[in-house]
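User: Need the bound-state model for adenosine monophosphate:
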Amino acid sequence: MADVVGLVPTMGALHRGHASLIEQARRDCETVVVSIFVNPLQFGSGEDLSRYPRHLEADLEFAEQTGADIIFAPPEREIYPKPTTITIDAGRLGEVLCGQSRPGHFSGVATIVVKLLNIVSPAKAYFGEKDWQQLVVVKAVAQELSLDVKIVAVPTVREPDGLAISSRNEYLAPSERMAAAAIYAALSRARDLIVKGEANATKIKRAAEELIAAQPRLKLEYFSICRPDDLAEMESVSGEVLVAAAVFAGKTRLIDNLLVKP
Ligand code: AMP
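Assistant: Bound-state model below.
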């Protein structure tokens, strides 16, 4: 059998969410490559690039124990030997939802993903549903640029109270961490209303946003009800929908989503 290579791109500070991607790749592929690279191109000015958690030693051990064969952790100068002049425009998919407050972010994501795919040449690449918009952008890049790779989506791994696991959870003060559970509660309330047959997106959002507003340590950036495949906002809910939110807990920006099947 051909040596199927699977790539799991990460920015390090590995946790159980990343482990789930590595384990899926381990089940599917002969060779599992985990990349660890904090990509400056996807951080805006004033974002957390300089303080993004970096734990390379611990990550190497974690990735190996979780089933990685090869860990690719290049220095920045190897990936960007000179200032980038060519980037990939993620188009409309990169402008909605998180793209509104993070202009250029998804272009940075698309560019590093294509570079990593070209360097590693995997047959399969693994991405978390936690970053749904990223997944949609990466799938579009692979399809529209005719890349010879299968993009595999892996479900979100959560803490017991529902909070999606994220490297950025490390930033949270205990009170912010407690409040952050309301993000999943709000998404779940929206899901429950949709499942019960509520179709009015404004009503659903209002009910969900109440749970965020009740937490003084949280500040909502957006709460969206949109089509999962093209992220088009919905006013009247029908068929499969994505409920997605971006919320600040103190200074930390957290995102999460749920796919709702009627
Ligand atoms: P990051 O290191 O945050 O860039 O994430 C690397 C990959 O892991 C991305 O494809 C993420 O979507 C995925 N990921 C991060 N957190 C989770 C999680 N809690 N569950 C599943 N996948 C995740």
